[in-house]
Design a protein that fits this description.
By secondary structure, the protein is an alpha/beta fold. The protein is built from eleven helices and eight strands. The two termini are 17 Å apart. Bound molecules: phosphoenolpyruvate. The site of phosphoenolpyruvate has 13 residues, from strand 8.
Length: 249
Amino acid sequence: MIRQKIVAGNWKMNGSKESVSSLVNGLLEMENSGSEVVIAPSFPYLSQVDGLISGSRIVLAAQNASQEVKGAFTGEVSASMLSDFGVKYVLVGHSERRSLYGESDELVAAKVKTIFEFGLTPMLCIGETLAERESGKTLEVCERQIQAVIDLVGVSAFEQLVVAYEPVWAIGTGLSASAEQAQEVHQSIRAFLAKLSESVAEKVQILYGGSVKASTSSALFQMPDVDGALVGGASLDAKEFIAIVKTAG
Ligand code: PEP
């Protein structure tokens, strides 16, 4: 089965009105390609970016959303608000949210459920720490993180969401997993889902994330189970991000 590739840029907590505008203008020079191009600015810039990308092939994502629908949750942003700004995807369970803000597997699953309720597509981030990899627990961790979501919304939900495998040791460290290491985990994630539903496993897009650059992306994208990339640091540079998109074909 041919799965469309997705190249998504996670801008994290970076940018200003001015830099956001010049970054998007740089990205608008991108030539058409077969992959879906997604960018995730910080909340305050969603409206600005939504306006700038209108009529282009770039798709908007948010970096987080509340598990709650609305009400007395000071400082939180709801999925329904995000849907007001042309957002299609919402990152959920990014390792920085899990490790710095204590987001548990159950909370991440609750967020996935709410994001679906408002017609948005979760981009579910999973991945092991270096200690977990070194003790041979990579798959156990990924499967536990996925299972929590299955327990709440069922395996069929994975037909409508995107998984981003992001080994924590590779995020922002310059240490990328090799294409073969990524393929091994992606294939195992698909096999794990296939035990519950083969058709879901075939369809689910699994992105790799962790220090992806144009110099590493083409080898990653050649792997049969790597359906794209979630890019942090390199997505803040329009030329580099465009070069990554090009390698996705
Ligand atoms: C990320 O934040 O999702 C990420 C993969 O970051 P980086 O590309 O900078 O490692």
